[in-house]
Amino acid sequence: MTDLSGHTVFDSLARTSARLERSVRLASGLSAAMWSRDEIGSTRYAEPSHHTLSLYLSGGEGFRLRGPRAVQPSLGAGSVCVMPKGITTDWDVRGAVSLFHLYVSPEAFDRAVIETLDRDPARLELRPLVYLREPLIEGMIRAGVLGLGWDEPGERVALSYAMQALLAAQLVRVSATDRPHDAAPPAPHRGGLSRMALKRVQESVEARLAEALTIETLAAEAGLSPFHFARAFRTSTGESPHRYVLMRRIEAARSMIDAGEALSQVALRCGFVGQSHFTARFRELVGVTPGRYRQSRGA
């Protein structure tokens, strides 16, 4: 797990009896954590230095936000909260909860506003949202983020993309409320990568299959933001960046197996930290496990 000290909300929870289950930090200014907690008490997030998106994965029915004028009770599992930078919140804690946090640096938020909404970040106010039902955001977290291996180098492109998409979805939710009436929505990006940009990206992937590639790294090769790169790459190749990198890793693994390399070494050289993860992804694309594949090839 990754130490996310320095994030106000993370540090506040770390001082309680809450247990950190998973954590990851990405180069894009996005970090995520999963917590479990079962106690009676209270927690204050004092003027956080970052924005936080929270989802109650299970439990939490006894939690509530204590505001200056009213107390707002939790909706239990599926509750979504947005806690903006600089706004202090006080929470009553009662019972068990499992929750997901996305921590967003101010720089990452401003960049996403420009890229996603084509607006000046200084003109957009991120408002607190407390205990809402947001099926789109909940689904993106459960299916697109929690199902990935946060510690697996082979999953970093997918994880980066999923968290960027989650932030974009949050912005769309906010902009639907705050967009000025005279502001036209930004035109969708339809163009693909140039031939040379695509070649640079593909060469970078081939040279760094063993590394924890992120969508930010690949976007830098193309000279684009991660948001626009992901769309342009899919237009050019028909695949998402994550899918393309995974396919290249598995193709390289097949060649190494054919050459007689040990499966444990193949997994490491192709960017898979664990053998089980390598086996699952290999079977997903090839249809058989690496061991069965080796037997079928007589290697």
TrEMBL record:
Domain of life: Bacteria
Keyword annotations: DNA-binding, Transcription, Transcription regulation
GO molecular function, one term: DNA-binding transcription factor activity
Xref: PROSITE patterns: HTH_ARAC_FAMILY_1 (PS00041), HTH_ARAC_FAMILY_2 (PS01124)
InterPro entries linked to this entry: AraC_XylS_family_regulators, Homeodomain-like_sf, HTH_AraC, HTH_AraC-typ_CS, Tscrpt_reg_AraC-type_HTH
Coiled-coil residues: none
HTH araC/xylS-type domain: residues covered: 199-296
Protein name (record): Helix-turn-helix transcriptional regulator
Organism: Lichenicoccus roseus
